[in-house]
């Protein structure tokens, strides 16, 4: 993708896969009908425009429900710039529909490289001379991490003249490598960019476990500002993590294989938190034979009580027809695991941070061949056997890479939490505490 900003006739900035691919407006109307809690927010707060003047950056799954959220923010008076919260978390037609509806500036497309992904985040944070956004919705934690790393680098550069170390522990993450590279390259020309952003920023509404843990750490370090973690909302954890994956996992599997049967096949779910529970339930309802791997004794006990056999991954790997990772446990599935799997076994991830499946090791395996079966569905052949495994969405979030994400009704609850969180944070701008 050419990394240059496009503009609509009205001057709104964007970068999407295909501006003409706007999808069905009927789908948007149905989504609005399903998202009744957001409709209630618009009805109750909209006439007073409580977010008037707010510049909001939104990092989220760019889907049809996201357009309803963005339109709600518009109704409450806000201006919005949007990027995806992952390299494979965009429905291209939804991104185009947001531009066509003139709701927000959007920088998102499905199947981004790490460089493209970080570029989109930087565009979503770019409010010109305004110095950055007033508020942020951060679904995945990456856009918060970008700001945090920028602040840390600027402090270090001001104190010692030292640039970010791209070889330090933890920087093997390709996205973080790109973030640090861009921060390093921008320091000499503007060494206060992220500090200005911090000074303007009123607060963040965060929605993932990892992102919330990062916010707590930054708060302890004195690095960041006010934040509301809606991830701890019982509605969010149950609806989004459990019910959402329960509905979108099987949709992604069936779309990737044009309806291939799941029944009577062996499915291994790696992890049994809320997301893992939803995946196991979905596969069980599809009549698969479900097995669970889990490191936590508490969660392993939950799986046993729910009737699922629990063992280490090595005990299940050779019998698996499907392997679904949910844990964000780095390199939980390695090439050695893949070489032990059946021919045409399917591997996919529904975890947040794209690191469960060691794709780098697979891509660099000597003699490996990659054949695309369907979009986001690839078979990788090992040279020793000329057999191999099928990987969905390049090892990233398959329920968005191969399907359309969580249903509108499920997303309505956490998105409403986001809006209420922003309303509370926006009061802090003037030191207000009234309702």
Give a verbal description of the structure.
The model has no long low-confidence stretch (mean pLDDT 86). Strand 14 and strand 15 form a beta hairpin. The chain is built from 17 helices and 15 strands. The longest helix is centred in the middle third of the chain and has 23 residues, at 234-256. Helix 6 (142-160) packs across helix 7 (174-187) and helix 10 packs across helix 17. It has 435 residues and is an alpha/beta fold. The radius of gyration is 22 Å and the shape is globular. It starts with 5 loop residues before the first strand and ends in an 8-residue tail after the last helix. It folds into two domains: 6-235 and 406-430, 3-Layer(aba) Sandwich (Rossmann fold), CATH 3.40.50; 245-401, NAD(P)-binding Rossmann-like Domain (Rossmann fold, 3-Layer(aba) Sandwich), CATH 3.40.50.720. The strands form two sheets. It has an eight-stranded mixed sheet with strand order 1-2-5-4-3-6-7-8, with helices on both faces.
Summarize the model shown:
This protein is α/β, with parallel strands linked by helices and 435 residues long. It has helices at residues 25-34, 36-45, 64-75, 92-100, 114-125, 142-160, 174-187, 193-200, 209-221, 234-256, 274-285, 297-305, 313-316, 335-339, 359-363, 398-401, 408-427, and strands at 6-7, 13-15, 55-60, 79-84, 105-107, 135-138, 203-206, 226-229, 266-270, 289-293, 322-325, 346-349, 369-374, 377-382, 387-392.
